[in-house]
Amino acid sequence: MTKPLRLHEDRLFPADPGTRAIARELYGLVRDLPIVSPHGHTDPSWFSGNAPFTNATELLLAPDHYLYRMLYSQGIALDRLGVPDRKGLVSADPREAWRLFASHFHLFRGTPSSLWLSQVFTDIFEIDVRLEAATADLYFDRIGEALKTLAFRPRALFERFKIEAIATTEGPTDTLEHHHSIKKSGWKGRVLTAYRPDPVIDPEHVSFKEELARFGELTGQDVGTWQGYLEAHRVRRAAFAEAGATSTDHGHPSAMTADLSPSVAARLFEKVCSGDFTAHEAELFRAQMLTEMAQMSLEDGLVMQIHPGSFRNHNAWLFKSFGANKGADIPAQTEYVRALKPLLDRFGNEPELSIIVFTLDETSYSRELAPLAGHYPVLKLGPAWWFHDSPEGMRRYREQTTEAAGFYNTVGFNDDTRAFLSIPTRHDVARRIDAGFLARLVAEHRLELDEAAELAVDLAYYFPKRAYRL
């Protein structure tokens, strides 16, 4: 017998009845606000081509590392789940992959993935039975039939989700053709790009030399020289801004910054280009480039995002077989106070520069990040991100940062996902959690209700618009 799938209208609200009633009232103010998604990884080709999504596996399972990393941890091979290998080849039958996923959906009990997916199933596909082995085909068929309709084309979903703006993230050698195509199409949906230069900034990147050569070809600059290399970044940043970018994005292993003299920086650049460099020199070069990127952001107005602290591709065999972004990026301890000081010594008091700092290391919230953002005009705190993009993670973030940084040194919520259909659900979770947190402050007489109401709307909508200059 199939089991009903129900989502309680008070999910994630405080258990205390009085506080819950306040949370309901605050949530009612933000539930239907437009979505601003300024930091994400959806594919711009979805919106340029507006082709139909194919099936449940390719839409919901194969792109979502939150899902298949859990299944992989239980011994299920990625090639059985429809995940493409390094060559882009898929060996699994989509229906069989979905059946395998459905039969193991119990593994996600209590996780954010279960919460997100259950809301996708009920709100978007109107399915009212739980996903399990017995209902796998029902799900696969119903989702497949829906995806054949015009209402489930990418642009139609974009509009249905009330997305006001969404950012994709492209590398420095991306041609941005899909963004240009969207502009030329006349469609009114606002799809932005963001400049992610890591492949030509990280000497330890697997494709650094090839990407650097392509970087020079694309920009017409001599990237074998320090000044030519910096000018190439300016050229690409201008191209990204022309395609709609309002931000840059930097995913370095650490938050280390440096402020070397031009001559020392040039010699370091020559060394990393030669291939004969130490791990420390690679780290120093990345550190210098964060400061150079900050200088360029001061010049061109692009908001700078730094999200360090991920040990990328920790599973060497998986990386060799399937490539990057396959669920094997692991949070690492990250230090900010000393690491950011060279950059802040130079730019920390610049009113025209905006730097948003993320972390995967929750221990740094109250000790380092909140005090830094609560002092330096240039800094804002990114939201609870990735492994902490969860109800508990969001609550801890508010609890540990609000006293030192306040609300107004934060930037609202970022969904940071490749899973397109989960975007409205993720924003709904964040709005519910913030409503609950604000309700508690009201119940404890630390906020007036009208103040909480204004904050709820700011957190859900206005903060990300302001922070990302949208």
Judging by the overall fold, what is the CATH architecture of the largest domain? Alpha-Beta Barrel
CATH class of the largest domain: Alpha Beta
The topology string of helices and strands comes to HEHHHHHHHEHEHHHEHHEEHEHEHEHHH
Report how far the terminal alpha carbons are from each other.
Answer: 50 Å
Mean of the pLDDT scores?
A: 97
| Low-pLDDT runs | none
Q: Given the structure, what is the number of helices?
A: 20
CATH superfamily membership of the largest domain: Metal-dependent hydrolases
Structural class determined from secondary elements: mainly alpha
CATH topology of the largest domain: TIM Barrel
Strand order of the largest sheet: 4-5-8-9
Amount of helix: 40-55%
Q: Tell me what portion of residues adopts beta-strand conformation.
A: 5-15%
What report would you give on this structure?
The protein is mainly alpha-helical and 470 residues long. It contains 20 helices and 9 strands. It folds into 2 domains: 17-52 and 151-467, TIM Barrel (Alpha-Beta Barrel), CATH 3.20.20; 53-150, uronate isomerase, domain 2, chain A (Orthogonal Bundle). A 4-stranded parallel β-sheet has the order 4-5-8-9, covered by helices on one side. Strands 1-2-3 form a 3-stranded parallel β-sheet.
